[in-house]
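Exam revision sheet. Question 4 asks you to relate a sequence to its structure. Input first:
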Amino acid sequence: MGFSIKEMKFKERYLLYLTEKELAGPWFSFKLKRKDLGTVPVILKNIEPTPIYQLVNSRKGANLDRITLDFDIREYIKRLVNENKLKPIEFKNKKHFVRLYIDVFLRRGHAPYMNTYFTLKNNSDFDLIDFSMIFIFDFDINGLEGFNNDLSGYDEENDIIYQYDNTEVYAGFSTISRSTNYESCLTRDFKFGEGHLSLSNTLHEGPGEILSALQIRFKTLEPGHSFQTALTISGGFSKELLFENIKLGKINAVKQLGQVNRSVKSEQRNIQEEAFLKINQQEAEGCND
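Answer key, structure tokens:
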């Protein structure tokens, strides 16, 4: 359960093609803190099994998709207990959900970019300490024909990370929140987890099967507080065109924040759909939504 971009094209040229689902979306990193628990590190990938991620509701449209998920802290703690990494604790009358709203503006045929908004609201009793959001994309420029010969770059002025190959096809992304860290590396060498909680601010030298990532660090997300950003992802037949597309996408992303926030705060957006209740109680390998 979660959010992943399986395939993406720019003018019929593949940018993402059959990418491993955990390497095409946002990850979250933070530490849970409460008196009866102490401090527990959490790494949430963009795809997690139910019932750790639980689907609240989903809407699909011609130009806009909306997904609402809950991260269940209690179920995550249960997993750690079952793995003998933590002692059991009681959750009597404790709030244990963190809600994630995802709004995808597709703009098919209207713009050379895709904007996706991520709004995370801490509805739990826990402080989320050292909160980070990490965007990871394992681009495969030109699909299977060129998956292992990509080069990479990072533009500090525009905060854009990108990949390209010798056919001059470019793919890249940026967020409306300034990133704090970046990295490109061989896909097989990517590490983010305990002991590796910051991207390296380095780029892979030379061509290869690589991925690109941006990290936004946000200190502490307290109970009742929210974090929001928007991702712009695009392609181009030159670096200049790619940057132009992404900058235009970010300008429009800021303009659409009001629409997104009205939806996030609406009663309809926060209603649990009964059809998903049974699904949420099942343990699964995960799926693309």
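Marking note for examiners. Helices lie at 73-82, 239-255, 257-265, 277-280.
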